[in-house]
Amino acid sequence: MNPTPERGTVPSLIRYLVKHIHPDTQTFMSHKVDETWINISYREALEKIDAISVWFLSIGIKKGDRLALLMENGPDYIYYDQALQQIGGVNTSIYPTLSENEIEYILNDSGAKTILVGNPFLFRKVIKIADNCPELIRIIACDKVDRHKEKSKLKAGLIGLGALIEEGRRLIPAYRQAINIAREAIIPSDLSCLIYTSGTTGIPKGVMLTHHNLVENVRVSLIQIPIIEKTDTFLSFLPLSHVFERTATYHVCLYSGAKIAFAQSLELLAKNMGEVRPNVMNCVPRLLERIHDRAMKNGTSAGGVKSKIFLWALEVGKDYRIANEDDKKSGLILNAKHALAEKLVFSKIKERTGGNLKIMLSGGGALPKNIGEFFGDLGIKVLEGFGLTETSPVMAVTEVHRQIYGTVGRIVPGIEVAIQNIDTKEIYTVQTHESFKESFQSEEGEIITRGHGVMKGYLNKPEETAATIDKDGWLHTGDIGRFFKGNLQITDRLKNMLVNAYGKNIYPNPVENTYLKSPKIEGVFLLGDKQEYITAFIIPAKDALQEQFGLTEAFFEEADPFIDNKEIKDWLNADIRKLSNELAKFERIKNFKIKRKPFSMEDGEITPTMKPKRKIIEKKYADAIEELYAGSGEAD
């Protein structure tokens, strides 16, 4: 897709789309109401967008004002965002899972003037802290607000979104010119959004991203993945409050003309996939791991002939994938076997995803190599991408025709990515899209980048900004990696790196992914900084554990955060010992404790993007860690 001045800002995308790609009667979005999927055209969307923009202008909102959203995915998010974008407002999205204190902090740090709130549960959170936010002048509720009016003595005004849109519609004739003037006054370097990233330590930081950051990131990503078409349907379920889903679904659809369908919930995702039959989905590694685990269980649990056919099909799929990846002709016999495997096994698994998937884009964390290969064996293309909120986000993404499992793809056009020595700060190599060579490999170090994706900085935090973006314009990602076969490969986070008592660097992510190959294990949290050997908290796969030992839900609700049961430990230890053979001796788990429940956001143990907060976990479970190093260990 060629760049054009007509698509230089976020609000220009939808207008370019209805002018050059689709008529305004074409379906833009769909969502499920009760049991019916409702289609929304561009014309319907633009009418609501303009009505909300008018209402903003009528209450004095101006260019540069921050306007917050605390809500789930859906058409209302798009209406509100587009409405504020076209008058120069700054989208300040807040994760729905954040605590009241965190919401209060973000509203005050950003100086948000209004907030759109989704369901009643989220509304109650905002009501509790609204009077502590002096800049907040309006709360907008997606549901009816009549029942709240008498109880509430809020300083901020309160209005329902439906009433707001009706009021805005009446004012459109008087404000039409004002909207046009405001939209034309927006330039690519203007701030488009604030996305707060809590990271694994410290208070939230507001990442300032411009219109140019976001639009250019979409443009170059589509150059890298040219198979997205205007006839495609995306199924959206990851939060739009995160930059990955906002860019890779919402903005990609605005740029390409693809349709967005909103899943009802994660719990109903499988059902929605069957109903929508999407062509493209963005996902996180954990979802793909669950699909893999379920497919393996369904394919092998019955035993006998069915299990043998399933495992035979996977072997055929692997041989076929490898032959095609190496640009060899697979041959008549392998082609015939593959056609049979597709009919007997693969087509049935694909049908559960709707049967029309061209690609799935995985981001937000490292995808274990074996999981990527499994989907490749099935003939489902999973492309990995890499980036940060601070880079808008995409820095690299897998090319459709060239997949190196365990890597995150080729550098996208227009940016530089370098590998820097952690200790000496020597830059080993600088790579670009144009310098790509299939055979290139580099030393390992911190990944740094500069170019069009780099944020404007952290709001109100000049020292943190200077610590992240150096004097030469390099943004330090905090991720460790290297180039492998021309592609970028992520090793781990710099802050996660463990250094044992003998000075050996241990990167937890690849070690944890090795143990996650076990169907008995859902999560691994590696420990061992400054210690003689590695230990871990192991989170067992709940379904497998229940099935093996006949456990009830009450077992998982017991107060002790750890499971102290020798039979269960031996059951897990059998797989841990076996998988340890794939690792260097200093990387192997020698002792472990079994965590009764996964780490949770509610307990402050993980970030909204599911990354563990290492310092908090280590402090919270300090006694348990001490016990791990008092024992002799069992897994070595």
Q: How would you explain this protein's 3D organization?
A:
It is a single chain. With 636 residues, the protein is α/β, with parallel strands linked by helices. It has three domains: 5-186 and 241-248, Rossmann fold; 283-455 and 475-494, Luciferase, Domain 3 (Luciferase, domain 3), CATH 2.30.38; 497-630, ANL, C-terminal domain (GMP Synthetase, Chain A, domain 3, 2-Layer Sandwich). 39% of the residues lie in helices and 22% in strands. It contains 21 helices and 28 strands. Strands 2-1-11-10-12-13-14-15-16 form a nine-stranded mixed beta sheet, with helices on both faces. Strands 7-6-5-3-4-8-9-20 form an eight-stranded mixed beta sheet, sandwiched between helices. A hairpin with a 6-residue loop joins strand 17 (415-420) and strand 18 (427-431). Helix 8 (211-224) crosses helix 9 and helix 12 (304-325) crosses helix 14. The radius of gyration is 25 Å and the shape is globular.
Structural class: alpha/beta
The termini sit apart by 54 Å
Major beta sheet, specifics? 9 strands, mixed
Q: Which fold does the CATH topology of the largest domain refer to? A: Luciferase, domain 3
What is the C-alpha radius of gyration, as a whole number of Å?
25 Å
* Number of domain modules: 3
Please count the beta strands (DSSP E, at least 2 residues each): 28
Count of separate DSSP helical elements = 21
Organism: Mucilaginibacter antarcticus
Keywords: ATP-binding, Nucleotide-binding
Protein name: AMP-dependent synthetase/ligase
Pfam families: AMP-binding, AMP-binding_C_3
